[in-house]
Amino acid sequence: MRKHWLTLVLIVFASLYSLGQSRKHQYRKDRYFFGIQLGTGFTQPIIGERYSLLQATPESANKTYDKQYGHLFQNSGGIYGLHGSFAFTKLFSVLTQPCFQTQRYSYLTNYHWADTILGGELYKELLHRQKIANLRIPVLARMDFSARRFSPYVQAGLSLDIAYFASQIIYSDNYIDYQVDRKTANPSTLAEMTPHVNKVNVYAVGGAGCTYYREQFAVSLSGNIRYGLRSSINDQNRYADYTGFATEFLDVQDQFNLLNLDLMVTVMVPIHKKW
User: Fold this and answer.
1) Residue pLDDT, tens place only, 218-252
2) Which pLDDT does position 123 carry in this prediction?
3) 251 contacts 199 by C-beta, under 8 angstroms
């Protein structure tokens, strides 16, 4: 469904581009733009240090018990927000896009126990899925490459992210095959893990996009890469068992920074000019 949506957006922009190539851009300098923004974001943890509740014995030291993280496009979340910008010149503007964003990431763990006295073996594979809900307040500088109606641009800046809620759920099965089907696996209860997350983070942001301008409105398609400058997990609460999963599932969070790829559509209207 998401692929069809992106394809439709690209078709619309291609049509607008063909219409706007020979027509000059409307007045932009000293103008304010306000609007709304919708999009989707993809999240990838960049691991700094790994942590575990179990210590490997000499017999199992040749095996890896590191978490197996899902790739970027397996971890999607929504973006819903506002847009405000001011154009100092035809090609340079400053903008902010406060929004609510959901970041998701997941990883696999597995365990194998053998009873050397009574015999018997137990296999367990676990899919851990985390969600972090943020209020995001970016401030970006934008440079356009054209003063025409169809205007490509680049932008960069910083974003203040405030995490106000985080949760975790675990799916488990009894086969170690490096995949867990959520439809057939046994789910845990949804547990809040907000105390495990650093409440405030700062992200470096860089991206590019294109805007199509008309007299009464403007439409923009953009993509940003965002990287958290602070680790996402609170070191002081790493081993605190707020979720109950450390005891039940031997789960403890690694230390990592989050990398995001955000794709957004913004609809704007000019409000007034600076006098």
Assistant:
1) 999 999 999 999 999 999 999 999 999 998 888 99
2) 85
3) no
Q: Please, which residues have CB within 8 angstroms of residue 169's CB and are 6 or more apart in sequence?
A: 128, 129, 187, 188, 189, 190, 191
Geometric angle at alpha carbon 250, from 249 and 253, rounded to 5°: 110
Q: How many residues does the chain have?
A: 275
Instruction: List, in order, residues 6 or more apart from 265 with CB less than 8 Å away.
Output: 9, 37, 38, 39, 219, 220, 221
Which pTM was predicted?
Answer: 0.85
Query: Distance of CA 79 to CAs 98, 99, 133, Å?
Result: 10, 7, 10
DSSP letter at 8?
Answer: H
Give the dihedral of Cα atoms 169, 175, 178, 180; nearest 10 deg: -40
Terminal Cα distance for the chain, rounded: 46
Residue given tokens 């676990």 in the structure block: 126
Q: Exposed (0-12), middle (13-18) or buried (19+): which is 4, by Cβ within 10 Å?
A: exposed
- Extract the tokens encoding 11: 């078709």
Cα torsion for 131, 45, 113, 243, to the nearest 10°? -30
- Answer yes or no: is pLDDT of 20 > 50: no
Domains and CATH numbers, the chain: 2-272 (2.40.160.20)
